[in-house]
Fold this sequence. Notes:
By secondary structure, the protein is mostly beta strands. It has eight helices and 54 strands. It has a 22-stranded antiparallel barrel. Strands 14-21-22-17-18 form a five-stranded mixed sheet. Strand 19 (277-278) and strand 20 form a beta hairpin. The longest helix has 22 residues, at 2-23.
Amino acid sequence: xxxxxxxxxxxxxxxxxxxxxxxxxxxxxxxxxxxxxxxxxxxxxxxxxxxxxxxxxxxxxxxxxxxxxxxxxxxxxxxxxxxxxxxxxxxxxxxxxxxxxxxxxxxxxxxxxxxxxxxxxxxxxxxxxxxxxxxxxxxxxxxxxxxxxxxxxxxxxxxxxxxxxxxxxxxxxxxxxxxxxxxxxxxxxxxxxxxxxxxxxxxxxxxxxxxxxxxxxxxxxxxxxxxxxxxxxxxxxxxxxxxxxxxxxxxxxxxxxxxxxxxxxxxxxxxxxxxxxxxxxxxxxxxxxxxxxxxxxxxxxxxxxxxxxxxxxxxxxxxxxxxxxxxxxxxxxxxxxxxxxxxxxxxxxxxxxxxxxxxxxxxxxxxxxxxxxxxxxxxxxxxxxxxxxxxxxxxxxxxxxxxxxxxxxxxxxxxxxxxxxxxxxxxxxxxxxxxxxxxxxxxxxxxxxxxxxxxxxxxxxxxxxxxxxxxxxxxxxxxxxxxxxxxxxxxxxxxxxxxxxxxxxxxxxxxxxxxxxxxxxxxxxxxxxxxxxxxxxxxxxxxxxxxxxxxxxxxxxxxxxxxxxxxxxxxxxxxxxxxxxxxxxxxxxxxxxxxxxxxxxxxxxxxxxxxxxxxxxxxxxxxxxxxxxxxxxxxxxxxxxxxxxxxxxxxxxxxxxxxxxxxxxxxxxxxxxxxxxxxxxxxxxxxxxxxxxxxxxxxxxxxxxxxxxxxxxxxxxxxxxxxxxxxxxxxxxxxxxxxxxxxxxxxxxxxxxxxxxxxxxxxxxxxxxxxxxxxxxxxxxxxxxxxxxxxxxxxxxxxxxxxxxxxxxxxxxxxxxxxxxxxxxxxxxxxxxxxxxxxxxxxxxxxxxxxxxxxxxxxxxxxxxxxxxxxxxxxxxx
Length: 878
């Protein structure tokens, strides 16, 4: 029986072997036009008795094949489908089994690996591209360019096909024989119509692989959106993101996940900007014409960033066209701006220079003069002038492929002047504030795997206020009262950062920074003069404070498995001020888990420390808010933030993101009740109270990233509170900008190359404010003129306040619309932009004023600021 069984087995195996051998020799006729591999395999199965068995992940579905009525053997077809024996072919009966040949991917000598490195740049300008991707489909590995356009990818020895891609640019495919380290700079062309599937696939691959919860803002989208008075503003676009709220009507302030405006680290070319607002917050200091890229990080902060609790806004300026002179000029209702860039030495040195100025003062002066001229001698005559300007400049010099130098600067200023004349009295006042930034950065590539950046910088913010009142008794006899106050923060620093990519599974960053801070919180001077003779002079100066910060960090982007990626690191900082040394160890960790090719989960836990504080006066955010330092009496602010996120690609360019967060903050500062910058106290520490804050919530973002219609809808459900021992009787109260519901929607429709439309709609729960429940007469010792010896009597009325921020303003919502009309001219592109801000004329609350009836019952009156505002602008790009 055993012999019989062996004979039967041998005979059947021989028959099966014969069938398998002849199966691959079977002829088929294929007529396939630009179809995927699945269509080829299906056509073979339809004409023969064979069936294919394979792992779907082993096949390349993106590659297309063409067969024009060709009669081939199955073996010849499979050889065309799988060249270089990338797939092993096995047969069993009528089955053809396809198995990926791992040996072809991993060379016999696994240690023999080489690195491809270089820059990814715009083909027309040679300007580097931030966040462009490099991907090898065969190895299923990839990387992206850093903030200077540099990339590095290590691969086993062999020949590979790599794809270089960037959203809005045509992808580039190149073959590389990796038998040694190689340098290659990829030049990508913009303005090319791309296949939607290709664009979306690259965007999804990158998005699902990122561990940070961040948003990158496209400058092209910013320019297509409606804007207040036509001023393109990246901060207003950021306000439309979930988790980010604006302060008051029309302002550019950012309140991220329950934090204050000082808790956002605003970086311009890596340098802190201490006041990001112009025009009392209605316009930001970031001139859209000078900006190359913008990134917002609001959770899962990487270790390389430190010094703030709530967000990082990383703004990068244009480097300048290395090939040719180009620029644009824009003239709008309230301002004009320009940008010009080009080569100083072609392909070696470039420059970029931008400027902006308003002309409120130029437009309003003639009307004010005419109005004052027509007034009677007894009427008061008033004038007001206001202007702002920005200047951005940058020079980029390429010493070699491994060494580059960048010099950049920013200068911006606002100035408001007020003057009033009436019989016997004259008053003049002025308020000006601004930033000055200087930066020098040197990039050097030590090796294909090691990239460095050295930065030296200075950043200064200052404001000055002056007011003089004169009683005109008679010339030269006059009595004058002069009051001035100013504040300044100066930040000087140097930092050294390195990026080391030892392997495709590790991207290590490390760095060290040393900074010197000089604070002048307030310097006030008041002088009373009788004629030319000073009667009394009083100078009040808060003690100047100097602080030194030494910090270091290390972080690693680690690919643990094909599904799990972790960014882990630590940021360590020591701040020396007065007689105190504050040391902070800040662990950071973010994890991304790829559920499938279309969805991912993200988790993060980060600790942040902030050594600087902003003393903000209640009400409208003014440039008189003070930057102050941690001191012996005031400790640094700290926060722990935890986040969880889910991202899913829905197809057709749609992307859904859900995020939840919880944030705990301590050592927060606030003015005590009744105090502000002008309060009579030399030491600001006596004016403040120290407390803590909590915020938590959920966010939803639905985006469409491709097609003629793009945009997003963001929704935030959140709660934010504060607790201070000496405010609100020590009980928790809602933060001023606590908003339960917040919605931001932005839609851009590109009808053609000559016309595009923009729509923005926002909705938010009203801001909180404090309202007394009743008012009553306050009694005490009155030493006024009518009671020189002191008498027990009334000192006026006082509001009875039971709780801080116990009321809410009405909900805020508005609709903005815009249209841009483009036309190619002989020397460039002309664009007319038209728009409407607050299209349905919503009377949104700016402030709410409470008055009381004789019975002490409060009555509220809302004041609105911005009605429906149409605008237009003309720009020419050459």
